[in-house]
Amino acid sequence: MIRTRDLTKHFRVGKETVEAVRGVDIDVAEGELVALLGPNGAGKSTTLRMLTTLLEPTSGTAVVAGRDVRAEPARVRRRIGFVGQGHGAGEDQRAGEELYTQGLLYGLGRATARARTAELLDVLELSGAADREVTRLSGGQRRRLDIAMGLIHRPPLLFLDEPSTGLDPHSRANLWEHIARLREKSGTTIVLTTHYLEEADGAAGRVLVIDHGRVIADGTADELKAGVSGDLVSFTVADGGSAATGAEIAGRLPAADGVEAVSGREPGVRLRVERGDAVLPELLRALDASGVAPTTVRVQRPTLDDVFLALTGRSLREENP
Ligand SMILES: Nc1ncnc2c1ncn2[C@@H]1O[C@H](COP(=O)(O)OP(=O)(O)OP(=O)(O)O)[C@@H](O)[C@H]1O
Questions:
Q1: Mainly resides where (predicted)?
Q2: Disulfide-capable partner of 81 in 72, 158, 262, 288 (CB 3.0 to 4.6 Å)?
Q3: How many whole angstroms separate alpha carbon 133 and alpha carbon 91?
Q4: For residue 73, is it within any domain?
Q5: Closest Cα partner for 126 from 185, 175, 90, 161?
């Protein structure tokens, strides 16, 4: 669905050159949901704007929905939907009319535009709000209307620039449910930008971590986490002696790394392994065979913030409070 090679965008600001996007290779297959994750100013929006033909690349290539963005921008536009950061919907129209008008604008016939409007209002649970003026919609409803507008012409590929920014946590979760339903129903490929770690983690199939105009990591959230720091496995035991024995046993596991016995009020053992859930049964069997009985056991997966921290030495949370 998308293939970019060495995609680059420089901006001239006075005498300075801002290298907003620096040689990005992105491949997105049909049906994928991909999140571009990165701090403010990383180059996410600029990348999206090049892919949607709103901005001409300085160099490099991008083929989107089967067409080159530079050679055939109009054809690309016909095959994609784009929902930007601002509201696309007008102020004084009613929600249903707004959507219908958008359909006509895209060249749909009246009957088709009407049917498509009803279908989208239904999928995005806006039917009850169809006769309401756009200004009277809630933040979440308005965001869903924007998404409906981006989908009116049935594009196989939809771009969303920070779809959930400004929404409260409840509306955010609700928006994600709608996006998931939409994909289930129509198989639309979706590329979105976000700087919410939890969103990229939970909802996206694949995450591209972007920093300083480059893709610095690419994979599912699980792959990224496994590749960088591994899971933290810890267990507590009754006394320091058992902790020492437990650490020795854990150290014999082939996959274990950084094994340490913890003393103090809650003696125990901590270790890093690539896949905590896979190692745990073996660890418990070995402990049991040596008469060490853990009182509690925990597997902690690293977060995407751990991944970003390991890659850049900075935390995404600090930059996006
Ligand atoms: N039209 C422009 N002229 C000059 N510089 C620009 C322009 N658009 C973006 N930039 C610069 O390019 C860099 C990347 O910006 P971009 O908006 O793509 O980042 P982003 O990752 O989308 O950030 P955010 O999460 O804040 O939207 C920034 O340094 C920004 O200041």
A1: membrane
A2: 158
A3: 7
A4: yes
A5: 175
Looking at the structure, tell me whether residues 108 and 183 fall in a common domain. Answer: yes
Distances (CA, A) of 316 to 24, 40, 199, 231, 306: 20, 9, 13, 20, 9
Task: Clarify whether residues 210 and 156 are in a common domain.
Answer: yes
170's CB contacts (< 8 A; 6+ apart) are 140
What is the domain-level CATH number for residue 240? 3.30.70.920
Q: Of the candidates 108, 99, 105, which has an alpha carbon nearest to the alpha carbon of residue 145?
A: 99
Q: What is the pLDDT of residue 319?
A: 54
Q: Is 183 left (phi over 0), alpha (psi -120 to 50) or beta?
A: alpha
> Whole-angstrom Cα distance, residue 171 to residue 173?
5
- Alpha-carbon distance 301 to 123, whole Å? 34
Which are the contacts of 120, defined by CB distance < 8 A and separation ≥ 6?
99, 126, 148, 151, 152
Mean pLDDT rounded to a whole number for the chain: 90
Residues 287 and 165 in one domain: no
Q: Tell me: do 238 and 218 sit in the same domain.
A: no
Give the 3-state secondary structure of residue 183. Answer: helix
Residue 261 maps to a domain: yes
Which among 24, 45, 48 is the best mutation to test ligand 1's pocket, defined by most ligand atoms within 8 Å of the CB? Answer: 45
In this structure, the residues whose C-beta lies within 6 A of any atom of ligand 1 are 11, 13, 18, 20, 38, 40-46, 195
Tokens of 84: 């930007």
For residue 234, how far is its CA from the centre of ligand 1 (angstroms)? Answer: 42
Per residue in 206-217, pLDDT (tens digit) is 999 999 999 999
| CATH label of the domain that carries residue 180 | 3.40.50.300
Nearest atom (ligand 1) to Cα of 195: 25
pTM equals: 0.81
